[in-house]
Every structure is written in C-alpha cells, then in structure tokens.
Design goal:
Helix content: 25-40%
Distance between the termini: 72 Å
Strand content: 5-15%
Strand order of the largest sheet: 1-3-2-4-6-5
Shape: globular
Order of helices and strands: HHHHHEEHHEHEHHEEHH
Bound molecules: uracil
Radius of gyration: 21 Å
Length: about 300
C-alpha cells in the first residue's frame, strides 16, 4: 500500500514498525487516543491523597494506639488480585512532590497492620506510577520471616502478576535463595517501588521520595532481623548512600527504621547477574555471609 500524504494511514509495514517500537519502549497498553499535557493541568489543585485505610489510626494517634502484631494479621500474600485494580488518572496529578511525600509518610505511619498498609497503598493517589501500572506489587513471601529482601521496582511480569520477582530475575533469585536453603516461605520480599515504572525506565527521585515512607513502614511492621538489599537502587534508598553497589556489596551496614537498627547486606541485583554471570561468584560470597549471620541468630 502506498501513502499519498502526511495524514494518510500508515502502511502495514509502518504500522508493524511503530508497534514494534512501542513494545521495545515498554508500552503495554493504550490509555487514551489523544495525548494529555499534564503540565497544562491546574497546578493550584492540592496534592491528591486519600484517607487512611479504615483500620488505620490518625498519624498523631499511632503511637498511643495499642500495637497489634502486624504479622499475625497478615497472611502470606499468595495470589495477585484476580482483576487488575486499574484506576483512572485523576484530572489533576499531585505537582507538589514534597507535599505528596509528606502525605505518604502520614498515611503510612497511620497503618498498624500489613493489610492496612496494602489498603492504604491501593488507595494512595500521590504517585503517578500507579496510573501506568496494571497492578500494585505489594509483597511476596512470609511476613513472619526473619529475612526481608528489598528489590528495586517491578518489571513487566511483576506488574502483570502483582507479585515481586516473578520474571527471569525472580527465577534466578529463587535459585540463589535455594542455594542457601531458603525459599519464598522463609523470606519476605518487597521493592523500593510498588508500581512498575513505564517501560522499566529509571524511577525519578520524586517517585522514590513518595514511595519510601511506605517501604520504611512496611519494614517496620514486618520487623525482620536482617535485610538483603538487592542492587544499587535498593542500597541507595535504604542506606542513603551514593556509593555504587559494586563497592558496597558484601559489606554489612545498618538501616535505622522505626527506632531499630536492622543489619543490612547490599548485594548484586539478580537482573545484573543475568547480564554479568561471571559476577555470580561475588553474589555467592554475599549469600554465604548472609546465611552464616542468619544461622547465628538466637531463636525468637
Ligand atoms: N527487579 C526488581 O528489582 N524487582 C522485581 O520485583 C523484579 C525485578
């Protein structure tokens, strides 16, 4: 088919090339027919946040409220939501990043159980990533586990299933855990972001700023004995370091969260190991150090 002018329909080859480009760029769904210039939306609108989950208490009351055991209250998150809880974007996105992060902290702090935290995230409208993601990726594994893993962000497979580390990197992670006698029932897994950045692009500092209060509260509620930080992004967010992962991996550090110092071991991300298999020997060393420290823990 020939094209007669700039406004003519695409040829089949052009349409196929365009679709291939979109797939390559990470586009998985068409949201609407016309582009929306979000910079032209009303900037005076207040940041969009929702009320805390029903069983959450206001931030100021959180410390006074009797603290239920959050682990007892939450099962092991076996399945992703059956129907994707896709939400329509609000007409006005939060433009004040600092305000959105502050609201996130207040909302997260008010959650006293993992179920409340999940519900709060499901209702949270302060992070634009939720509007391009198909599912919230909250956590997987056993919330009573003594070891908590923190990855970077969901990818395509995780977004589709609503569970962290289920794609190729996740399969490698499962094998790494198995090598030291662990599995998804003996660890608990989250990411620094609970929604997939479109096309797996690098998350922005503002996206991290608004999501980290939820991650920190998540860690506080699970109260693990130690953290394994998967990759440089996770290490940067939780240790506040700018030093690259290849320099800090394998060195124990500590995260102060909820008044507790939690030992944290940064290691190489499984996705990096898929690209650089020769580096697996370093990850193996880290895993052995982790296992030794886990085995030395006194019984709970
Ligand atoms: N990479 C991550 O950091 N997290 C996931 O859940 C999947 C891949």
């Amino acid at each position: 088919m020939n094209r007669s002018g700039p406004s003519s329909p695409l040829t089949a080859d052009e349409a196929a090339a365009l679709l291939a480009f979109f797939v390559e760029a990470g586009v998985t769904e068409a949201l609407c027919e016309a582009p929306v210039d979000r910079y032209m939306l009303d900037e005076t609108a207040a940041p969009v946040v929702t009320a805390p989950a029903p069983d959450a208490v206001p931030a100021g009351e959180a410390r006074r409220a009797p603290r239920a055991d959050p682990r007892g209250a939450a099962p092991t998150f076996p399945a992703a939501p059956s129907a994707p809880p896709r939400v329509a974007a609000p007409t006005s996105l939060p433009l004040d990043d600092a305000g959105a992060a502050e609201s996130a902290r207040a909302i997260a702090q008010a959650c006293t159980t993992l179920d409340a935290l999940r519900a709060a995230l499901e209702g949270f409208e302060g992070c634009p990533l939720r509007y391009t993601a198909k599912n919230l990726v909250f956590a997987d594994g056993n919330p009573a586990a003594r070891l908590m893993l923190v990855g970077e962000a969901p990818g395509r497979d995780e977004d589709l299933q609503g569970l962290p580390f289920v794609g190729r990197a996740g399969q490698l992670l499962d094998r790494m855990l198995a090598a030291i006698g662990l599995d998804r029932q003996s660890v608990y897994i989250v990411n620094t972001l609970p929604w997939r950045p479109p096309g797996n692009r690098t998350p922005t500092p503002a996206e991290h700023a608004v999501c980290m209060p939820f991650v920190e509260r998540h860690i506080e509620l699970v109260a693990p004995d130690m953290l394994l930080l998967l990759g440089g992004v996770s290490a940067k967010q939780l240790l506040g370091t700018e030093t690259g992962i290849t320099r800090i991996r394998g060195k124990w550090s500590s995260c102060r969260i909820g008044g507790r110092d939690i030992p944290a071991l940064p290691t190489l991300h499984p996705a990096y190991l898929l690209r650089q298999p020769a580096q697996k020997r370093l990850a193996w060393r880290d895993l052995q150090a982790l296992k030794a420290r886990l085995d030395a823990l006194p019984p709970r």
